[in-house]
Amino acid sequence: MQSYPNHWEADVVLTDGGTAHMRPITPDDADLLREFHARLSPETIYYRFFAPYPKLSDRDVKRFTTVDYEDRVALVATISDSLVAVVRYDKVAPEEAEVAFVVEDGHQGRGLASVLLEHIGAAARERGVRRFIADVLPENRRMINVFREAGYTAQQTFDEGVIRLTLDIQPTDDSTEVMRAREQRAESRSIARLLFPNSVAVIGASRTAHTIGQTALRNLLGGEFQGPVYPVHPEAKAVVGVRAYPSVLDIPDQVDLAVVAVRADMVVDVVEQCADKGVLGLVVVSSGFGETGPEGRERQDELVRTARAAGMRVVGPNCLGIANSDPRVSLNATLSPDLPPVGSIGFFSQSGALGRAILQRVAERGMGLSTFVSAGNRADVSGNDLMQYWQEDPATEVVLQYLESLGNPRKFTRLARRLAKQKPVVAVRSGGSAQTTPTGHAAGGLSLPDYAVTSLFQQAGVVRVDDITQMFDAAQVFAYQPLPKGPRVGIIGNSDSLELLVKDAAVRQGLKPHDPVNLGPQATAEDFDLALETALAAEDVHSVVVVFIPALHPISDDVARVLRARSLDSDKPIVATYLGRQGLPEELRHVGDSGETLRGSVPSYPSPEDAVRALAYATRYTQWRNRKPGRHPELPDIDGARARATLVRALRNAKPSADDIAWFGGERRYDEETAISSEDARDLLSCYGIAAYPDIPVSSAEGAVVAAGELGYPVVVKADSPDLRVRAGGTFVRADLRTPEDVRSAFLSLHDRFGAEAGLVVQRMAAPGVPTVIRAGDNQSFGSVVSFGLADVTAELLDDRAFRLAPLTDMDAADLIHAVRAAPLLFGLPAGATSLAEQPNVEALEELLIRVSRLVEAFPEIGYVDLDPVLVNATGAHVLGARMWLREAPDVRPDAGPRRLRGVTF
Fold this sequence. Notes:
Elements: E1 10-13, E2 19-24, H1 30-39, H2 42-49, H3 58-65, E3 72-79, E4 82-93, E5 96-103, H4 112-126, E6 131-136, H5 141-148, E7 153-159, E8 162-168, H6 173-195, E9 200-203, H7 212-222, E10 229-232, E11 238-239, E12 242-243, E13 257-260, H8 264-277, E14 281-284, H9 294-309, E15 313-315, E16 321-324, E17 331-334, E18 342-349, H10 352-364, E19 369-374, H11 383-392, E20 398-403, H12 409-420, E21 425-429, H13 450-460, E22 463-465, H14 468-480, E23 488-493, H15 496-508, E24 512-513, E25 517-518, H16 525-537, E26 543-548, H17 558-569, E27 574-578, H18 608-626, H19 640-653, H20 678-686, E28 695-697, H21 701-711, E29 715-719, H22 722-728, E30 733-737, H23 740-754, E31 760-764, E32 770-779, E33 783-790, H24 793-798, E34 801-805, H25 810-819, H26 842-858, E35 862-873, E36 876-879, E37 882-886
Parallel strand pairs: 5-6, 9-10, 9-13, 13-14, 14-15, 18-19, 18-20, 20-21, 21-22, 23-24, 23-25, 23-26, 26-27
Antiparallel strand pairs: 1-2, 2-3, 3-4, 4-5, 6-8, 7-8, 11-12, 16-17, 16-19, 28-31, 29-30, 29-31, 32-33, 32-35, 33-34, 35-36, 35-37
């Protein structure tokens, strides 16, 4: 019997936005199972057991609750300590099991059956099951649809009045897409329940001015929330003129959202009362949680566990709050009295301290928000949840995120990549250089260097900016101007010196500026209008920068009217340095009936460099969005079964690391106990169509000569110690050895210099080419990651490498190669070459990267793969050095397997 599988426990979001807890069944669930069965309708019981079954016997209860977590497995879903659904499988053959589930009548239609099937399928695959069999009565259409819509390959037969469904539960593109779509709908709905409440209670509403509780209440009322607001105070009859109630349980009507502003030690009790009341969501503005230390962290975890168990999502704790400018709700459940007007920007901020300043800056620039969430310690609701919501929110066209930590980085990049194909995503991530997170955040620090995180953001299409000012600079273009169709920039102005600054800045940003059109200091509005008409009509102009800083006073707004009018009719973006103003000045705005700033408003920047940088962000984003999505090429020569057998053999011969293997930057750790043999590494690579050159270890000059004879001349003699190779640069190898005497001399030279630690080997020599390095492995933050760079001392010292998430598409592989600064060396003729036929075969290198990414994605036991060097020449990409380190595979990989909410303990 297997021990209790803790990693099968999960919090999940249901289709209506509520939550449930899922876990393996135990004998202690006997009473819960009896109560659950007693609540089932006769029809539901008949569908499950094919007969009336009004009561479970003690024998039945023992059989159902006692499982071995191997051949007999059952999972239960609970809400508020009540069991609401059960799914189980029983093996009937080595790779086949019967599966059945039942959902309490009152909770049917909430997606419990689908998520139960996802999780029981993952558990079954872990135990070697490949197929599920389900017998279903024909009239049980709901259960049949659950199986059919799971995305698995299914077969159906009919016999003796029962439909038998056979499902191949191996993940497919269709089943993964179905799971992701359900996840998106459920998490989006859970956020919508927070942002569109019909009623709000403020628990901890105070009669004392300037307290958190009274501030939250006043802001709700002052923001003209469209539903009832209920202050909760243990003694007061009214707070700020509104009738108060002793507890949330005393409120006579439904409460959708609770803003909690009581002491930290009282919060869990309040959450339990909210659960009894049927509250749908919580905003906890109280502090005193994870940011205060271990005791506060335990309190924070208990808060989230209690809320999720009752089906509630939590914003916070220690947060500024949430807001929705939609006139249907006009929700200001924040501690900020003034919110920006209605707009098309969705904003997520983890920092409560910065939140109010951020909102003020948005308003000062004349911009508007659709929704705003400040998550504070981010114990539950995160930026990932908001991206799920914003993907389908028609009111949000641009997404801004101020991030201090990433709870599930791999999920972040997956969601951002999907969202960015529709809407720009602009992110500031603080603390990048320190690789730390603020105290109290429910997330650990990232285990990749900051430049690697930037690479992964670029892969996902996220516009990463350096600070909040740049975030708003970029947002002004994205929210109020069309996207540029290309990099060519027209420049119009009345100051020759400022126009030259624009041109220089454009070149530095990788744009292609035209020569400026200088209208002179006396230029009129008509001059600007004609120049804009000409530039916007030109096919080789994709965007326009306008500089207007007249030397004389008074200044009329005639030029502003021209800019505004031309912008309204143009499908090309116009940005300006207008009087050195920042934001969207009134003269450059198009204003709606409700006073909101509309598209076509012209963003202005205090300096030409700021304007060009914002335009460059938009241009690079457009180029990313317009790229082909890439594909995962078919690689028919991959032998996964042989790879698994090879890995099992290698695991027996090596001691896998219990820790993550740091394989980036200067923190590489080589633990020989966790390394597999060169032979096993080559065998494992060959399973994925990667041929690594064999080498023969040698301990004497004569042994080296014998090895050279076996391999065939010419050969190389080199050191095989990774640490030594890094220290010694290119001096660890002797190449182009064509005679026995050459081999003896090379061996003795290297042995005399480095001694026995060199680990000298002899290897057949490859034709000259460009030496590169491919490294890949399972990263604790991002999952499977691949890095690429050139194999030379300079590249190592400058850490000139790029990173991408595995598995790579063909476009990802091409981007990865181009992303390193030394990439041009791969796209020209090598020294001494005379024709294009001798150019490095970059296509072969791209395929090699794809194969390596498939390998590390398939086997999380592979902690680190180091292919160094990979020589790229005209004939292909040749792996001359291959080493591999193993680790204990994690129970749950980041963003892999069935959908689940991030855990509350770390």
